[in-house]
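Reproducibility note. Readers wishing to regenerate the assembly model reported in the main text can use the exact inputs given here. Chain order matters: entities are listed in the order in which they were concatenated for prediction.
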Amino acid sequence: MKINGISIFKIVWTALKRLWGITVLWVYTKTFTWLLTIVGSILLRTKMSHNNGIAAVGSIRFVDNPDFPLHPFFEPGKTLPCRVRHAAASFMDDAMRVVRSMSIKMADTSKKSPMDIELNTGETALFWSVASFFRFAKYKKTRFGMQYEEYYRRYPAGVQGAHVGMRRNPTSFTNLKYYSQTPFLYKAEDKVPRYIKYRAIPAEDVPESGLLDEYDLKIPTENQRILPGETRVRNYLKEEYVERLGAGPVNYRLQVQLHEASDSDDAEIFNCCKKWDEASHPWMDLAEITIKKPLSWKESTRMIFTMKNLPKGLGIIPSYSIYDYNSLNFLRRHSDEARIARRLAIKVFGTPREIPNNDVRNC
Amino acid sequence: MDLINTSKPQPKPKSDLEIACQECLDKNRSSRTPKRRFYHPLLKNLNRLEVHESRTHQGMLSRIGIICIAGYAGWLRLYRKASARVFPRRTKIYGKPNPDHLVTGHLTFGSRVDDVDSPIFNMHLELWARTFWGGYRKLSQGKSDREGKFRLAYDLFYVHRYHIAKVWLAVYQTGYEHFTKAGRPTPEYTEFKRVRIRKGDLVGIEYCCRQVQLLYWEYRKDTPLPRVVIKSHDKNAPDKYSPGYNEELAKTFVPIELIKRKHLTMVRMGHGLTHQQIVADYPENLTVCMEKKQPGITRGDDWFGRRMMNGMYACDFDRDPKNPDLYWVHHHWGSYEKTHHNYAMPDVDLWFKLKADGLPTPVKITLTGPLTAQEKDSKQKRTFTPDDGEKWLAAKRISRVSAALHAELAHHFAGTHINTEQYAIACFRHLKLNPISGLIKSFLRSVVLVNHTAERILVGNGYITSACALTPKGIDQVVYKTMGTLDWKNYRPMQPISEAHTYAKAGNLFWEVVDGFVSNFIDDPINREQILAHWFEIYCFSEDLVNHSVPFFLCDYLQHALFDGEKKFKNNGASDWYHQHHRMDLSENRPEVSGIKKAVSRITDKQEGTEVTDEELNQLKQVCTYIIYQATFGHTWSNSKQYDDIGEVLYCSLGIRFGKGPDGVMGPESDYSIAPDLIRSTQMMWWSNVLSKPQHGFIMADEDGDVPSDLKERLEKHRQAFADLDLDIDMIQSRANI
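Running the prediction on these inputs yields the following structure tokens for the assembly.
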């Protein structure tokens, strides 16, 4: 017996396999989340990464004449209050060689919003699925500013992602380009299923700073230490951001890339270690972000960004196993317990200490 | 009498000597050597041999232990066989390999320091998994590229099925070749290294094994000779003896070992062991047998000339530059490091004239160097002729010893064993997909293992050092310089100097057979296409040969005799006295590496098959023929006749002492202070037996089934022709395995 030329047995079998895959993915996700909740969020009151950050507030305005089929949420000309948080991954030292991030919350709150977007420097990522993320976590082994040595040994794609994403001493958070890397669903008004990637770039056409030069590329990827004789202080980037906002608003452009979904799509389209071809998937303006005022360390630390804050039709792409490329967003979406627990812990035990500008480096 | 060659030559009437020789050879051939009995000690393998007391297992507990181990090994073999039946390693690839999910890495030679950047290319790799119930699942397979890099696509979702217990990457060496009925070589892959991969680490995209360093046919750094690294003979040697070899060795070796042990005990206990008893206790050899038939027959000039020409010694007969009617044989020892405390080792010059029957008879022997322990002048020359009576006999005895040692070191050890090893290393390192691999590998099997053992117990600090004047360094010098004179290019077997020169005639006939076989193989259109397709392997093979070859060597005498002041050939190389055929072609320009002229010539300087010329293909034929010839006929001749020519201590040995008499080494045979001492004597007999007796690894018997049938058929066609030259083709070894 067949449905659309496919054996019903095969359909049932595939459905069962997917169900099992989702179950396993859910179990892995929840196990990891609860471990993170207990150890990271409650005991240490920290995020898993990106603790070293600064938030600011402003507004976002969707462009008037978008060049792509529109989703109702992206109503042309609509303006929303907005917060962004810039951060550096893993280390509490701005002068280290790390990935930088920009998280956008389309509301002036610390938690609830109609839409959150999390972006990192580098068009491709260091890991590509829940399974690879667990390897990434397993082989972290941080010591003296070095980490993921074993991971980079085993996974060249991780090295590639690190080279693309790490920034050494950028002059400002505002002249970096940030990418969502993983694709999301995009169901526009025309009902054609599409996938979408986001990026935020400086509003002005300025060269990106902090890109790894030839010298930096020769340094082993796991070595993220500051350069010998470094004179920049631990918070130089956050201080520069505050200074810049003091001088006037900072503008970004939020752009998107779209891919029309089809049955013949290769799974690699979801691979966050591969960028979409810009010729066939051009970046198109979605919104303008204007940031006016920095927020305090306390407020910045309290903020949470979650993938549950996504409008209908702009959610995550379903995933069916821990090896699925889309499982990364599944993990992000289903790990809110850790975020909420951290907020709670901060409320109960107080805000973690602000990063001092001292000589304790590479940590 | 009509002496003209016809297609069916009339058999000549045989002399008494020939009849006695033939009878003794037949007798020795048909007589059964003692075999190992169940209560005899056990021997694990050839590497357990020791000059003094071999490492056998003799004690009751030890024997019970070894029987248990053997039982366990048997059970293990059985288990593996059964396991292979129950859990076959199918060639099928499980899952659907996805080119986006890869296991990658690169293979290099060497340990942490040496050869670290030399890629190993064309290595066969397979990605395997095993299920919880023991089944094997092949997930992927491929080859390393010229940079040693490999990329194996696999099915990520298949790997993560719950029944998959473990995953590994297996690196295979292309094993010994067997041939299909059509004569095509079929590669066999033997697992060389296993790289464990955590199943959980396979998460898609690319898992990199990084640099996989293989201790794969590594060149030794502690010797200038091209030798392979063998860290542990029994555990991780790059080669293995063929199945049945060690069992066959133990059968013939253990009874001989027991005789040696008896003698060593008698010497230790002072039980009056004599040289005669030593000889009598070992299986009868050719000379002992002949002496029984006609006393003194083997000490005569006829026998001396015959054996010098066609025996183990197979000397190089050049015409005397000063007297073209005579043939001259020279054994030079003066340049090598020696001790003159016990052993005499003069340089030996022999002059022969040819008799009517074509066999040589000695007319003059000149010994240069001390002949008594008291003499110090290493330049003193003394010449002896047949008119010198007892002195002539003594001079011949010294000449026999000198020729035997020369044959053992230069012809046998250097000329076949070490010479073959250099080709074996380069071959196993680089020839994998090229059909030439199938052509020559079976002939190169085991030689590195034998050489490893020989270095410990025969040369170096082994038997020869203790039984002659050469020091370990002196032996190394002999081998090193001999290797410096060996090259495949334009090599041809020794040219016969007369109808009776059966060694040279047999050599030439064998060369023709092998040449025909090799040419037929390479000219086969399918083989030829594949040879050219994988020519890069030949290029690397050739480069390794040249780069690791010893420097070219030509002694001072020949440099002056053959070349003029501008280092050009005198008379355009047309020397009427120096036989060049079987020696290095001196007219060829030697390849240079870092400014040093190397002994071994390049086969090609082309990396791609499309650029290869016919001349280079002919060179390939030549080198293959040379390798097979040296590993088979060349080795057989010098090895199998050892017991005939050094199997009677008083007749000939590998060293001879000054003795206690006033004439020193020129004393009579009855002066036992000249012969090797009792321990060395029994060891000598043991040696010659061990080396000549084992009955495994022959071309025609083809015990391992890896000798190309075409070669066997071609040899079979010439069986009678070889028999007429006193060579039984059934006795030609297929490799230098002893």
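We highlight two features of this model. Chain A has nine helices and twelve strands. Chain A has a mean pLDDT of 95.
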